[in-house]
Amino acid sequence: MYRNLFLILAILFSLLSSENLYAKKSKKNNKNRKEKKKKESTRIPFLYWYTWTKADNLGNVAKIFSVKPEQIKAWNKEQGFPFKPETKIIIYAPNKVYRTLKQKYIIPSKMEFDEIAKNIKTSVENIKKWNPKLKSPVKSGVTVIYYRKIGFDESRAEGTPSNGKLIGGVQLPERKGWYIRRTPEQEYGTESTIRLIIAAFSRYRNKVEKSPPILIGHISSKEGGYLSPHQSHQNGLDIDIGYVPNTNKPLEGFIEMNEKNMDIEKTWHLIFSFLKEGRVQYIFMKDSLQKLLYEHAIDKEKVSRTYLNKVFQYPNGNSEAIIKHTPGHGNHFHVRFLP
What we know:
The chain is α+β, with helices and mostly antiparallel strands. About 35% of the residues lie in helices and about 20% in strands. The chain contains nine helices and 14 strands. Helix 6 (about 190-205) crosses helix 7 (about 265-275).
């Protein structure tokens, strides 16, 4: 009898203890929820100015910034809904917003995964994940896919090079002895563009000891948009660069080049320095000058034809080449970077 009584008391004590423990745990959880809610309510949101486009709809934009469509409407009552294209709307995002950009890197010469990873600033694991059929070492001319994550509010190109604008434009800094800024007020690009230009010139100067400063033309105006006399150069992704003259003296203006007045070797190293960065979409250049550089690369630099045929439009008319013939590019070449 006493044994049963003790058993009942033990069960009751256990139940009371469990209930008390649950109550304490529940109270603690409620406190944590209140503190979290209070913290979220006092957190300063990330403010973004977003330019509405024809392709936008409220649901998709809300999803990008992790907010509700009704909130976007409420924050922009004075703009009136539906928003017209080019309307700047304000968005208060709870967290920093990133965009992922797909990029391509054409291998300039045989490379191991670790060297590719270093060049495009990612990990070997990512290269394997994004290119499952790829094996190391990777042959010259092979295209490697990679992805780049950037903050939505970072310096960026909007629209297209021929119908766009520049957000958060960065001016090309002065680098004495490297290049000559012809029109500094029209030499603004995205932060990425400016960084790539400096990296390419640094690579070139390390390769070529004696070179005159290279003449730089237009990139974009500070906020982008139309820049006379160009159709492009509107969103901070384009730059005009003079060829290297064989006089070893800096150019005062762009001059028409040929095999008699162009330093073919130094110009090749300048072009190749940009290609090595892996972020060039196009280089516009007169076909006769492409021929000089192509033949020099094979005969003197021993670069593989596989790589050159993928990069140059000459001699096979490759429509997907990076270096393309475009009229008006015999006195300078035009580099367009990936966004």
